[in-house]
Hints:
The chain is 27% helix and 28% strand. It folds into three domains: 15-237 and 402-453, 2-Layer Sandwich (BirA Bifunctional Protein, domain 2); 254-381, Alpha-Beta Complex (YbaK protein), CATH 3.90.960; 471-568, Anticodon-binding domain (Rossmann fold). Helix 1 crosses helix 11, helix 2 packs antiparallel against helix 5 (167-187) and helix 2 (44-63) crosses helix 11. The strands form eight sheets. Strands 3, 7, 8, 9, 10, 11, 12, 21 and 24 form a nine-stranded mixed β-sheet that branches. A five-stranded mixed β-sheet has the order 16-14-15-17-20. Strands 28-27-29-30-31 form a five-stranded mixed β-sheet, with helices on both faces. The protein has 15 helices and 31 strands.
Amino acid sequence: MRASQMLIPTLREVPAEAEIVSHKLLLRAGFIRKTASGVYTYLPLAHRVLKKIMQIVREEMDRQGGQEMLMPIIQPAELWLASGRWHVYGPELFRLKDRHDRDFCLAPTHEEVITITVGNEVRSYKQLPLLLYHITNKYRDERRPRFGLMRGREFIMKDLYSFDRDEAALDVSYQKMHEAYTNVFTRCGLQFRPVEADSGAIGGSTTHEFMVLAESGEAAVLYCSVCDYAANAEKATTQPAAGLDPGSQLLELQEASTPGKKSAEEVAAFLGIEPFHVIKTMLYKTDKEVVAALVRGDRDVNEIKLLNALKAINLDLADEAAVRQATGAPAGYVGPVGLKNIRIVADPEVMALTNAVAGANKQDAHLKNVSPNRDFKPAMVEDIRIVKAGEPCPKCGARLQEARGIEVGQIFKLGTKYSKTLGAGFLDENGKEKPIVMGCYGIGVSRTMAAAIEQNHDQDGIIWPANIAPYHAVVIPVAPKDEKQLNLAETLYRELNRLGVESVLDDRAERPGVKFKDADLIGYPLRIVVGNKAVEEGLVEIRRRRSGQTDLIPLSEAVAKVQEILPTL
């Protein structure tokens, strides 16, 4: 393409609405434009990048035996009511009615439709396994859309669903997708980690997220540099700490005045103890009850773990009024001893404490010498705390490290969660009816484009990995009004494209500096400059965007040199 004929509305100033690098650069480089909050128009350059990512995805899905199809975005409420997710998704689900007053939603995902489709068509074990996928728009009514394509209300996603006869076969499908996802993100030129994760509203047992490592990532990733353990902060576990208790002899309960001391740190400092010897008691309201979550004073409650342990739909921290109503004490003075009609969930570390300090359920007072099992008995003992960097790896004991990550893909073992509910079964060799065992596997295509920029940029603009760059190279005649320069540039441009090097000829009547800045901003992996040296000495300048390395190459060797460089970028 000739730049003079292309729609690339670059901007010199950073748009006020943009918060993170990818959002700023996608707007400035003329890739996207905002249509509504969380909804964007993909301009030609962005569309080319998206198509390349989708092609890589298709090739890797097909390599594993995937079959592409296309499912509707508008889905009837009956399916979601049948699966039980119509209310689980809550306000994030875009809901609408047709002219007959029937309820529908805009699909945030497609488990219901694919399960019904396969359930209606598959009857025998001989038809399994199946790997079915599609690439389409998805919709989630985010409370606060932000970060451009990272958290939008409309986005492009690939989701594949596996259908197997048993758990052993599901393991095979799951491993196929793990391999496929590894290949996809490697081919996209990204640094990433697969990490253990929480399944959220999708449900199921085992799940891994594929995280692109970037400082701007919303998620914290805990990983071990010695073994292969990695998990997001919602899922991460560790080995329980040992040897922290001052003694095993149980002492009598004793009330201590702690005026104005509410936090674990304040109470510990006031009483002259370490924060780890305080029992932090947090009250939460679920859709069914009020519960007390107990962790050590130097820990924080992991609300995702707590939600899963309680098998609740909603979980909210109790406000001051709810705390007073449930305990008779203000927040900061709540403890497990004597709590009535409140289910207690204790972290295992709490159960290892003796003679600890906890709230007395009385203003300005705490209890000393609190010991689990003697003074209170929790209804549940579950890992409900946040794990932090520096704690021991649960697999090998080495110290965990932390990085920020952007989730670009997630794979789930669903089991029979949807097939049982929606009636998708098959007849085995003995004619016995069994539910199909399912998995689901998603890749955020538009988010992958943004994540690539978060990981590949500098102060001048985007640095595209060559496999997903909108074009591989830009050919810039320094003086396009110079007929000789322009002719040499056009000849080189045509030859590059003929040999499969996707190139742009920047024939605009702009100063060279403007073209160079635009080339860096847009992120073409290679910039080829045709100037006076090309006319006088037969030399062109080839510059690598990522490293800035510049070479003067004989014009006759330029195409071969570009073909040599591209696979390394």
